[in-house]
Amino acid sequence: MHSKKLGWLLLAPTLLILGLFGIFPFLYVVWVSFHEWNPFAANPAKIFNWAANYRKLVFDAQFLASLGVTMAFVFFAVVSEVIIGYLLAQAFMKDFPGRAFFRTIHTLPLIMAPIIVGSIWKLMTTPSIGIIPYMLKHTVGFDLNIGTSAVAAFAITVIMDIWHWTPLVTLTLIAALVSLPSEPFEQAQIDGANKRQIFWHLTLPMIRPALIATVFIRLMDAMRTVDEVLMLTGGGPGSATRYVGVHIFREVFPRTNYGYGSAVSVIVLYLTIVICWLLYVSLIAPRTRKGSS
Description:
Blueprint: H1 2-32, E1 35-36, E2 47-48, H2 52-58, H3 61-93, H4 99-107, H5 114-125, H6 131-139, H7 150-178, H8 183-190, H9 195-223, H10 227-232, H11 244-252, H12 258-283, H13 285-292
Antiparallel strand pairs: 1-2
Helix pairs in contact: 1-12, 2-12, 3-7, 3-9, 7-9, 9-12, 11-12
């Protein structure tokens, strides 16, 4: 009994922080989502409107368009980050001159705030002064202008996200690869297995938990990206990069539509949980049941 009380006492600060900064804000957002509330209006009272905000977003063309472009952004960014991150992790596992230096340089984007990342890419992609438009113009003759080209703006935001967050995937997978036992790989080589067979039947299954956890983290982060895109494109041109995070920002701050913005936030959180759950039941749960049987 004494040990249980000590355990709860040690957990109390964490539970308190989780309740204050996690559970309570979430419940408050859910409550606001069922109201019409503009705190800067002449009558700032919260008006309970049942599920009107949720009905509205179902028929909101801007929200549906932002959700579609967000799904495309998440797919291209997360898949690219996982592939590139794994290849870099395998490369950094090998011993070569300057490995420590390149590892350090590779992780530098992680220490930058998202708004700084957006500012850097804004400077690099501005047609008059940016190095990227200059190099594309003088190498392949392509005029890059993310202010007028929807495809270019979308592609640059994906590349920016890859540049910013691939180091996180690399570091996670390096930790997973370092922890792998050497005996199964040595036995597989003795049995004549090639690199492709070793990857599919040994490496990938053994790093699967770390890989899926990394995908979950990146998926959740990509679904709510705001700062970098606002700084780089502002959500344009048109609605090409108006991702759901940007859409929520536009609804809540310039338009001060707090109730509707809260409803969109709740739906995006629900969709994120559903996507993670689907990935879990399709990739993790079947193997767990197979292992237990």
